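Problem 12. The chain below contains 235 residues. Write out its predicted structure in C-alpha cell notation.
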Amino acid sequence: MEQAMETVAFDEPATEAGRVVLFDFDGVIVRHQTLELFYRQRLSGMGRWRLLLALPLLPLVPFLIGSVAGNRFLGRVFLRVVTFGRSEAACRRSMAAFGRAYARRPGVFCRDAVAALRRHIAAGDRVVIVTGNEQKMVEAMLDEVNLGGYELVASQARMGLVGMRFVSHNVHHAKVRTLDRAGIARPWALAYGDSLSDMPMLKAADAARLVNPTAKTAKKAGRLLGDKLEIVHWY
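Solution.
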C-alpha cells in the first residue's frame, strides 16, 4: 500500500510529548464513509433483494441522510439489512475482507493524515482513533497497510434476531462517553474530525482541527468552536 505509506512534510508546531490526540477515521484518515461503501457493495448485484427488507424506509432516505440523527438511524437499519440471514462469523469475515480490499485501492488513505498520525506517535503522543465504523472492519484496513502505534475506539456490533446490530454505536455524543468509559483520561489535547457529527469530541478537546470541510460545515463549526478551531486541508 505505497500510497498510504509515503510521508508528507508540512509545518507542524512543536508538541509536548505524552498528550492525548484523537483522530476520526472516515473522512480524516481515509477519504470515504467506508461502512456506507460496505452497505452499497452488499446491496449490489445478487444482494439487491435485501432492499426489499428496507422498502418502507426508502422514500424517507433523502430526508434522513442530511442529519446526524438520520444518518445514525440509517446506519443501524442498513447494518441489519445487509447482514440478515447470515451467521455472525460469516458477517465478520465479509467485513474484514471488504476492509482489506478497500485498503488496497489506490488513493483511499489520506497521506497527510497518515503523516500527521505518525508524527504524533513519534513525538510520544497517545494517539486514539475514534470512529463510528465497526471495529473489525477498521482493524482490517489499518492492518492491511501496517499502520500501528495507535489505540482504537470503535463501534461494536453483535448478531441479533434480525441481522447484526450495534451494541455500541460510537457516533456524535457517544464518542465522548465511550472515551470516558475506556479510561482515556482528559485533557484531550487535540482532536481531528471532518464533520458536524464530530462536534462533541472536538468541543471536548483543548484544540480542534477540521479536515477538508465544506464552507457550510466550516462556518457552523467556527460558531461552535471559536478560537480553538483550525481548518486543515489534507490530501
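Discussion. The CA atoms of residues 36 and 75 lie 8 Å apart. Students who got a different answer should revisit the alignment rule from Section 12.3.
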